[in-house]
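Lab notebook, bench 4. The sequencing result for the construct came back, and we need a structural model before the next group meeting so we can plan mutations. Quick request posted to the team channel:

Model the 3D structure of this chain.
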Amino acid sequence: MKIAHISDLHLNTLFKDSNLLRVKRLLKYISSQSVEHLIITGDLTDNADESDLLILKRMLNKFGFSSHLNLTLIPGNHDIFGGPQKPVDIFSFPERCKEVDYDAKVNLFKEIFKETFYGTIVANEESQFPFIKDLDNVIILGINSIAEYSKYKNSFASNGEVKLKHFNKIDDLLKKFNDRDVFKIVAIHHHFNKMKNTKRSIAGLWQNIEKQTMKLKKKKRLLSLFQKHNIDIVLHGHIHYNEFYERKGIAFLNAGASTVGYTGKSLRVNIIKVEPDKTHCELHKLTESGEVKIEDLFRKEYQTILRLSPI
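Done. Here's the predicted structure in token form:
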């Protein structure tokens, strides 16, 4: 299976209309690469606006990504709570988060993209998350890692947490595939590594603020669960740069700089190719001049983890 992984599109037609063209260009390029499945790991929008979710859905449909067979979507914190649009908004943003109906926002996300949830395996009918998609030799586990607002623990609503009841559901779902030889992918919004420092002044200022408010709580518990069930790779976003890294013998791939990143103005997509005896990934960068730069994203020292070979 050939998979495209992007994240953190931050579509915002009210405050950042130029990003609409960037998202459209990125999706057009992905469609041209003959990928069989597209995974977007959260922050589809920047301000949790319903109209932006609908606009993105129309764009995805236009470029051939419209069903559970070729599209997997996970919400990000910006899809539930939005984000500050001006510097002054930082001071009032926690109060805005407090007023958000968390369950209603998650249900809206599921309703708009309901076609992508058809045929999924869930632990029970009460909640769509977590879920598993069984795509023959590949399974995708979708996890909602967005924590609810808390005045003291999550005042900017950007921290993540997978509650114990959802953690147990994940365990139950993965047990169904213990006896099958399948490639196991996890799609989640929050990261499992430490944030890098950036020298870019504007991005660095906001990053230093978010560095204290973007943590995934109790991630060690999740790491142990991923080890237990031999997860092959975890796909995520949240931090705005692309990289491959390893934790506890598990491979992780970040696509957070797909349209908005600390690393430059290029559009970026991770292209993952899963074959019976090998798996590898390329990072495709679309520059403003129209040039496409391709580089191997997995580092050589990790090739034994994913049975990698060069493209």
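The chain is about 30% helix and 25% strand.
Will bring this to the meeting.
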